[in-house]
Amino acid sequence: MSHLDEGTLHALLDGELGGTALMEIEAHLGGCAACSARLQEARGFMEEADRLVGSVQVGGHAAAAPASPPPPPSPAPRTSWDDTSPVLLIPDNPESVPLIRRWPRAIGWAASIAIVVSVGYYASSVRRETAAPAASSQASGTTVAAAAEPATSPPADALRKDSESPSLADQKVLTQPPAAAKPAAPKREKAAANVSSEEAIDAAQEKATRAAERDAIRARAALELSRASAAAAATPEPAPPPTMEQRAQVYTRIGLDEASKQLGGPAHVIEGMSPLFMGLAQGRVAAGADTTRPVVRVVYLDSQGRMILLDQQRNLPGQSPTPTAGSWTLGDLTMGLHGEAPPDVLRTLRSRVR
Question: Which of 60, 155, 263, 298 has its CA 20 to 30 A from that of 318?
Fold first, then answer.
């Protein structure tokens, strides 16, 4: 909620607000020190004006504006121009002269009270605008002096006319408040307009600052995202670890029946070791084997996790393969033993092939 204007503060002091509007204004006053100070200043001004009016006494009683005298009765319409009724002469009322002399004095007091109240209200407005330029202060002083001049003129004029009864027009002029206090309202409106414009400028600046902060955050986020994307593109994903078949270069697994079919009899194994699996491998990866035909490969893992490969391939009729390093002939089979274990371990295991 924005700051309260002068009209709202005076309506609150006069008791003209109620319901939801009163609750919202009270909640705003509870959290806004500036509006609370302005409310206290307006309340103090109204109390000071009431005190000044109450302190002015005329003859021990508060001064009051005299009631207007009743208008004289209108003469009866003349029915004809040949009226011959006698002229009636009315003597002067001797008690009317004191009454006529008391009228200007009461009117002068009423005008003085109105001027005092107006000047006090205007002075309180001038105190609130102490930060204004010196030229405005001089103009305010000139206006106060001009407003103070009518305070003495109405009683002097009225005393010069103590032998005449004041007309209704003269009473109206004398009882009207001076026009010097009127510039206070435009100044209050100007001050409120200045405050509103400053608040609008502050709100616009705050909005621009927040927008700039959001843009900066988005730019940083986009930069970090681009850097992360570039790093992910530059760093290749690690290849998955090879499977046991890939390590053993076995393209398919087989059972004992398929192994016996490939070898023409039961497959050989290493005594005292349990095979991990059995499969077929290409002949070109086995030492001393026919490269055009597959070999039966039995895969082992020793106690240290090293892979041991036992190859077996049946020789064709009339075929006599030449043994190479790591291969030998066992019956009509060409055998091969190699793997990740050292050569002395492989030689020991070769003697256990059954």
Answer: 298
Which DSSP string corresponds to 48-117?
HHHHHHHH-EETTEE--PPPPPPPPPPPPPPS-TT--PPPPP-PPPTTHHHHHHHHHHHHHHHHHHHHHH
pTM above 0.70, yes or no: no
What are the structure tokens assigned to 174, written together? 């004398």
Q: Which pairs from 152-157 meet CB under 8 Å and 24+ separation?
A: 154/107, 154/108, 154/111, 155/104, 155/105, 155/108, 155/111, 155/112, 157/104
Give the count of alpha carbons within 13 A of 217, CB side only. Answer: 6
Provide the CATH number for the domain around residue 283: 3.30.200
pLDDT band at 263 (very low <50, low <70, confident <90, very high): very high
Q: Give me Rg for the CA atoms of the chain.
A: 60
Same domain as 267, residue 318 = yes
The CA–CA distances, whole Å, from 132 to 33, 112, 336 equal 22, 29, 110
Count of beta carbons in the 10 Å neighbourhood of residue 286: 25
Q: Which residue has the higher pLDDT, 135 or 264?
A: 264
Q: Which two tokens stand for residue 229?
A: 């994307």
Same domain, yes or no: 254 and 119: no
- Per-residue confidence (pLDDT) for residue 169, from 0 to 100: 46
Residue 43 sits in the same domain as residue 186: yes
Q: Which domain holds residue 35?
A: 6-65+97-203
Q: How far apart are CA 3 and CA 264, in angstroms?
A: 104
* Inside any domain, residue 322: yes
Using CA atoms, how far apart are residues 300 and 102, in angstroms rounded to an integer? 138
Using CB atoms within 10 Å of the CB of residue 195, give its burial: 0 to 12 exposed, 13 to 18 middle, 19+ buried: middle
Confidence of residue 29 (pLDDT cuts 50, 70, 90): confident
Query: For residue 42, is it within any domain?
Result: yes
Share of the chain above pLDDT 70, in %: 62
